[in-house]
Amino acid sequence: MKRLTLWICLSLLGGCGLATPRTGQVVGAGVGRAVFEARTNGTDLVPVTVLFPADDSGAPLPGPHPAVVFIQGGFVATTRYEWQAVELARAGYVVALPENQLALAFFSVDYGQTARTLLVDPPRGSLLEGLVDAQRLAVAGHSLGSVVAMKLALEGNFQAVVLEAGFPDAADAAQVATFAKPSLSLAGSLDCSAKLESVREGWASLPAPTALVVVPGATHYQFTDADTEDRQRKCLPDASLADTHTRVMNAMLAFLSAALSDGSVGAASLAAVEGVTVEVR
């Protein structure tokens, strides 16, 4: 029935999706937000939330800007990662968050590529026209989303990858061994879901250039907008949510700035991030 409805929309109405956004909603100083619907698999519509550098009216600041496609964790709403997207947009990045089926990116890996295509080949007349530099594009993800982010990076359309509280799929080991782009693994020292030893083991499978940043006292859901799930499960952080957010974002910005400019992990800038431990190879 869903596909029949979409076919009718396409055939009779020219499409039933959202109107193409030409400006955004202001969500903070220097940051705009807009929701697109991108078509994939011929008929499926993928909601993609995009945050971007904007003026006081919500109009995008002239590009091209570097960009990040961010993949949500399993059963975690994309809205819970918008704090990261806001901070990245404030720093000059365009960030796309595709909404995966059932909030399980593992079953819709192609949605990440759909979001990438939206950024680099946007609808005519949309606010995304000319906004993104296709040569400075990274993919990131949290937890299960990091597994999918690595799969997307292995397809070759991204210049860098960030894995938050996660690690590559063991099934991708042969491809991972030949991966030639910069990567960053972010781990919480008190993560009860993606334990530090597991993240470290996964990081060991990544070829250089790569960096591992351990955020002390951080737990799994502190990469989202709240650590309620951790506390309910008696997985108690030693760091405040605000401190973890600051450290995560400072590490991401240090890495992305270098990875999308000279192809390095930005070792010196990572070493300068206060309160984390860094390993580089």
Helix-strand layout with pairing:
Blueprint: H1 2-13, E1 25-28, E2 31-40, E3 44-53, E4 65-71, H2 82-90, E5 94-98, H3 110-120, E6 132-142, H4 144-154, E7 160-164, H5 173-176, E8 183-188, H6 196-204, E9 210-215, H7 228-232, H8 241-259, H9 267-271, E10 277-280
Parallel strand pairs: 4-5, 4-6, 6-7, 7-8, 8-9
Antiparallel strand pairs: 1-2, 2-3, 3-5, 9-10
| Percentage of residues in strands | 15-25%
Summed up, the domain count is 1
The overall pLDDT average reads 92
The total strand number stands at 10
Q: What is the string of SSEs from the N terminus onward?
A: HEEEEHEHEHEHEHEHHHE
CATH class: Alpha Beta
Radius of gyration: 18 Å
What is the CATH architecture term?
Answer: 3-Layer(aba) Sandwich
CATH homologous superfamily descriptor? Alpha/Beta hydrolase fold, catalytic domain
Number of helices: 9
